[in-house]
Each structure stands twice: as C-alpha cells, then as structure tokens.
Amino acid sequence: MAIVTKAPPEATAVRLWRALALLTGLLLVVAVVAVWAGSRTLDFASLRTDPMARTLFFRLRLPRVIMAALIGSSLAVAGAALQALFRNPLAEPATLGVSGGGAVGASLAIAFGWGSRVSGIPVVFIAGFGGAMVAVLLVHRIARSGTLLLPGALLLAGVVVNLIASAAVLAIQYMTDPSRALEILRWIIGSVEVIGFDTIWRMLLFLAPCWIALLALSRELHLLAMGEETAGALGVNVERCETAIHLICSVLVGVTVAVGGAIGFVGLIVPHAVRLMFGEDLRIVLPGSLLLGAGFLIAADLVARIAFDPIELPVGAVTALVGGPVFLWLLHRRQRYSAL
Amino acid sequence: MFEARNAEFAYATAAPVIRGVTLAAGRGQLSALIGPNGCGKSTLIRLFAGLLTPARGEIRFDGARLDTIPRREAAKRIAYVPQATALAFPFTVLEVVLTGRSPYTARFRFEDAHDRERAMEALETVDAGHLAARRVTELSGGERQMVAVARALAQEPQCLLLDEPSAALDLKHRAALMRTLAALRDAQGLTALVVTHDLHLIDPLFDHVFALRGGLLAAEGRPEEVLTDAVLADVYEDPHVRTRRVEGRTLIWSN
Question: Looking at the complex, does the CB of residue A232 fall below 8 Å from at least one CB of chain B?
Fold first, then answer.
C-alpha cells in the first residue's frame, strides 16, 4: 500500500536556529575579511610582534568593523520593526524620514557646539533621538486613518519629512560658522570611520538595550504585521506596543545617525534579504536582520574602502547605490505586496 | 455569555456611534447583528472584542467586566475576525492560522506540534486545509476570509465574533460558513455573534437576531420574530422590504 506522506513544514524554531547559525557564520567571515583587507593588508601572524600591525588592528580596523556592525545591525532591525509596525514592506528609517529627523537633531547639536556630554551621554545622541522621534510620530499620525494605515500617505509623508529635514540641515549649515559647517558636511556624508573604542562603548550603552527590547517584542511585531485589529484580538496591547517601538526605533536611528551620518536603505535591503532566505516570520526576521545588518554594512564599508583605493567612498553612497534599485524592484513587484 | 449594559461609544470628537445599547447573549447562542450601513454594528462588535472601551456603560463577558480580564486571557476565550483586509506580507496560510495559537504560547517560545495540529484542524473545519502552504497574498478575497476564520477557530474560543465574514464569499461558501458556525455551536457549544447583511441565511440556522439602527438597539428576538416586513421596514427605514417564509426559512428582498 502506498503511503502518501506530505513532508510537514519545518517548525519555526528549527528555521530560526538555522538562520542564526548561517548568518553568524556569514558575519564572522565578512568581519575577518574586512579586518584583513585594506590598502595595507593585515598580517595576523605579526600581531604579536609588530606594534604597527597592532595599532592598525586595535585602533583602526577592528573599531571600524565593529562600528559598521553596530550601525548596520541597528538600522536593519529598526527597518524590520518599522515594516511590521506600519505593515508596509517599503518602510525603513530613511524612507519614513526618521533618519532625516535624526539628522536635523544631530546637526543642530553640532552647530551649537554641543559636543559636550550630559553625565557621560553625548548631547548629539540625545538630539538625534529627539529628531527621529518627532519624525516617526509625525509620519505615523499623518498616515493613520482610524485603524488603517494608508501606505501611500505613509511613504509620501516620509518623503516630505525628508525634504524638510534636508532643507533644515542645509539652513543650519549656512547659518553656523564655517568650521562647524564643515564638520556637519563631513558627518552628513556618512562614515563608520572611528579611532579606538570610546564611541563604541557609549553607543553600545544605548543600542544593546534597544536590540534586546525589540527582540523581546518580536512576538508582538509578528502579530502586528498581520493587522492591528488581529493583533489586538490576539492579546497584544497595540497602543503600548506602538509607543515602545516608536521609542526604540528612534533611539536606534537617532544614535546611529548622530554617529554615522546618512546611511540609507540598510533597513530596507537587509530585512527583505532575510525574508527571502528564511520566510516571513518576524521572530526570525528580527534576529536575522540584526546579524545580516552587521555583515551587510561591514561589507559595504569594505567596498567603500577598497573599490577605488586610495580614494575612499562614503559608505552611505555604497548602501544607497545598492538599496535604491532594490527599493524600485520591490515597488515593481507590488502585486506580491498587496498593501501597496 | 456576553453582555452590553447601556454601552456608549464615540470615535474621537465625532458624534456617538453607539448610544446606550443593552443586550445579552447566552452560552451556545448563535446571534446575528444586523442593521443599515453606519448603524454601529462594527463598533459594537469591536466593543465586545475588547478592541474599544465604552465611554459609558460596560461590556461584560461571563459575568466579569471585559476590561478587567487580562488581554491574553481574553484572547483564549474570545476570538474576533475583522472585516476583510489584505495582508502586507506574503505569510503562508499556516503561519497566519498559527497566530491564533499565540495566546497559548509563552514569549520566546514557538508553536509546538499540538498547536500545528489545532491550526490544521481549524483549516479543515472551514474546508481550507489544502491552502495551508499557500501564501495569503496569492489567495482570493473569499479564501483569505476563510483563513481569517480558521485563525480565529485556532484560538479555541468560547465566543466567536465575526464582522461581515461572508462579504467576500460566493454563494456556496456563504451558506457553508454559516452551517459551520451552527455545527460548532451544536458540537462544542460555541457562542457566536455575526455581523451580516445576508439576512436570508439567518433563518433557520441562527438562534437570535439583534437589529441596530442609529447606534440603538431597534429590535431583537428569534429570527422569525425580527425578520418580518414591519420590523425590517423600520430597522432599514425601507418600506419596500418584503419577507416570506418558505420551507422553514425566511426569504427577504426589497421591491
């Protein structure tokens, strides 16, 4: 007798662990290559003996790779969360104007010379967070109609917030004194260049709790992605979740923008790549985006460093050159994403 | 089982949509909620689902005030299917139905084999088992609606609230869905409240009809009491409504 067995779909836990294993492996490989490669390749064996190599490794390469990882992870996981919260596959910090808002806050802080710290916290972080928060609340408010989020209104609101933000940054640049204007310009171009670990520790203090909080909310985000009313009926406190996610994403985006400048589309490409590889479940997409986001920005920075050596490209240009076409491709495939 | 006591509700600054409704439905009762467009049916059912909180009065479930029952606890007992909406992401049908198990799943845990079994059973109940591996974005409106009902059934609720579940369904599936609800009532004592414009499907499957007009309860009673020329003409403010009982069911049309 022939027994017809349908292979049962794999349990979500199995898919999650496979995703984590694969993406961690990928991240490690990319990180090692990025630490090694550059205008002067690093000889790992000479690290013990050669102080020059040690300086290159500990003061420049390693901090830079870790910085790229922090920023990439944060932007990617914020993008994945915003897509679920807004139920819009084209949402991400840059398209929603959240990065723009953060940029206004950060450039204000630079223009006023608020380089100082309030009890150890750089003011520019707080200003970036404030700007990002205003932007996310604004676009959410505009796109909301009852329990519906109008996808067109959301993206249009994001575009306009971005335009206003870049005009504001430009105005701030013109009005401030030349040395600070230059500082703003260099920061806007976007870079993950860093010397030593000082800034990294400070960022981690903000970012790590946010990552953990978002991962803890992945169940709620998975349900919210199905629809606000469905999530509410399944026991999610929708309002409280929205507020929490607004806050968390604003910290993630505000802090990374304050340090790295304009690095767009990471939050768009990375979650979609994770979805294509491991499916739509947000409980996989969020941790997956965290890992792949780190790997992606490390790789983008590597390309920026070595593609036209000795000229270094801004890393934001690399991500936008990859991300822009991906955005258009997603828009083109809108039939698969019926909410558009 | 569920009950509204003088419930009132208004959205933001707008005029009140529900203006003092008092009604109660017993355990194992299959009730229809009818009325003209904009009369407050969807708002009332959202109040029962706990998605909205009444401005005045109260909503009770099993004797307790609904807003005192923890949300996840309530989600094990009350399931709600909103009006048909499209999903933004290409989840598989099984993924969607499995979310119905989330009230039973602890944080950082995934649904287990038992949950998958329940989800597949729920899909089979609405005759949609063959869709399990499909992506929801590829389904027709009617199929999506069946999946939404299956998701609600996977919650194993005592009370099922459905907002126009048959709107996107064809003739056969409309009747099939209502028969399924009646069968679940008979087999498991399921209580259900269904917002519907399919008045002809109410008699004889449903036990009770609530008719709303302008945010007030205009009529209630057994189907044969409410589905009459006089009552429906009053509820829908349409003097042309006609009804006729044929072979144990009520036919309804408007001239």
Answer: yes
Check pLDDT > 80 for residue A197. yes
B95 interaction partners in chain A (CB closer than 8 Å)? 279-281
What is the arithmetic mean of pLDDT over A111-132? 78
Least Cα separation, residue B243 to chain A (angstroms): 36
Instruction: Read off the CATH number of the domain in which A159 is found.
Output: 1.10.3470.10
One of 3.40.50.300, 3.40.1000.70, 3.90.650.10, 3.30.360.10 is the CATH number of B2-85+157-254, namely 3.40.50.300
What's the rounded Cα separation, in Å, for the pair A48 and A209?
35
Q: Residue B168: its pLDDT value, please? A: 83
Residues of B whose CB is below 8 A from A339: 86-88
Work out the pLDDT band at A340, boundaries 50, 70, 90.
very low
A45 in a domain, yes or no? Answer: no
C-alpha–C-alpha distance, residues B102 and B85, integer Å = 20
Whether B94 has its CB under 8 Å from any CB of chain A: the answer is yes
Domain carrying residue A285: 16-35+63-331
Tell me the domain boundaries of chain B. Answer: 2-85+157-254
| Number of domains comprising chain A | 1
Q: B16 exposed, middle or buried (CB, 10 Å; 0-12, 13-18, 19+)?
A: middle
Backbone phi, psi, residue B24, to 5°? -145, 145
CB contact under 8 A, B110 and A16: yes
Residue in B with minimal Cα distance to A14? B110
Question: How far is Cα A211 from Cα A18, in angstroms, rounded to an integer?
Answer: 20
Which 225-254 residues of chain B touch chain A by CB within 8 A? none
**A11 CB within 8 Å of a chain B CB:** yes
**Residue B46 to residue A16, Cβ atoms within 8 A:** no
The answer to whether the complex's ipTM is over 0.90 is yes
Q: How far is CA A115 from CA A112, A123, A127, A183, B49, in A?
A: 8, 7, 11, 12, 51
Please compute Rg for chain A using Cα positions: 21
Inter-chain CB proximity A280 and B89 less than 8 Å: yes
A168 is a domain residue: yes
Residue B172, CA distances (Å) to A238, B42, B140, B169 in order: 36, 24, 15, 8
Interface residue A9 vs chain B (CB under 8 A): yes
Task: Look at residue A119 and tell me if it is in a domain.
Answer: yes
Residue A136 has which token pair?
């996310």
Out of B73, B75, B110, the one facing A13 most closely (by C-beta) is B110
For A149-176, write each residue's pLDDT tens digit: 777 788 888 889 999 999 999 999 888 8
Residue B116 has a pLDDT of 94
